[in-house]
Design brief:
Layout (H helix, E strand, L loop, with lengths): L1 H18 L16 H12 L28 H10 L27 H7 L5 E3 L7 H4 L11 H9 L9 E3 L3 H4 E2 L4 H4 L1 E4 L2 E9 L5 E5 L4 E2 L1
Parallel strand pairs: 1-2
Antiparallel strand pairs: 3-4, 4-5, 5-6, 6-7
Length: 220
């Protein structure tokens, strides 16, 4: 009986492996702040009734506890860190252990799923309709004890603590976030939200000028 059961389980495993092939790409879409009440409010506004949005009719839905390691109500940094690393941390802290204190001290660095992907040679990227140093996306490539230090966080996309950094970075705010100093053309530097980045100028397409960081990333 045991041998038959073993053969049955092995056969089922091979069948499952053939039916569910390995995914070619993994894309995580994040609706920042899109809890049940927010989704139902949008559904009522758009369709006159709750649970009428496409996302609410998907075949597989799940609920998750979003409390942090220390607080009942999470912020974007702690929430995204839990998604990225599988560990809870504290509000304001990104992909570090819960003994980190916001703007006081670091905790243990937790490797993110994006950094594991980099180790396997996979291409990675972040795209946001907010700044690319926003906690909801940067927790996947950066480790910091203060989500508000946007310049230092963005620097980690170019000079990562682990891995090689994202291959593609797309976000808003070029004019306000990534801006040059008055004399930066001679000093080969620019500022991201007031903090200096070590980059050099390059000429893109006609009429385009941007910055190239030492790692080769370009900002147009």
């Amino acid at each position: 009986m045991n041998n038959r059961l073993a053969r049955l389980l092995i056969g089922m495993a091979f069948t499952a492996a053939s039916v569910f092939s390995q995914a070619k790409n993994v894309i995580l879409f994040i609706g920042d702040g899109a809890g049940i009440s927010s989704l139902n409010a949008a559904s009522i506004l758009g369709h006159g009734k709750p649970q009428a949005l496409y996302v609410q009719k998907m075949g597989h839905l799940a609920l998750a506890d979003t409390s942090t390691a220390k607080e009942w109500v999470t912020d974007g940094a702690a929430c995204a860190s839990a998604w990225a690393t599988g560990h809870k941390t504290r509000n304001g802290v990104m992909s570090m252990s819960a003994d980190a204190e916001r703007d006081v001290k670091d905790g243990e660095i937790y490797k993110t799923v994006m950094e594991y992907a980099m180790e396997q040679g996979l291409s990675t990227g972040v795209i946001s309709n907010d700044g690319v140093a926003g906690a909801a996306v940067s927790a996947f490539y950066a480790h910091h004890n203060n989500r508000g230090k946007a310049g230092e966080i963005f620097q980690q996309a170019l000079n990562p603590k682990l891995g090689r950094g994202p291959d593609v970075i797309i976000g808003t705010g070029r004019n306000s976030d990534l801006r040059t100093d008055r004399d930066s053309r001679s000093r080969s530097s620019c500022r991201y939200r007031g903090q200096r980045l070590h980059v050099s100028r390059f000429d893109g397409e006609p009429g385009q000028t941007g910055w190239r960081q030492k790692s080769g990333h370009r900002a147009l």
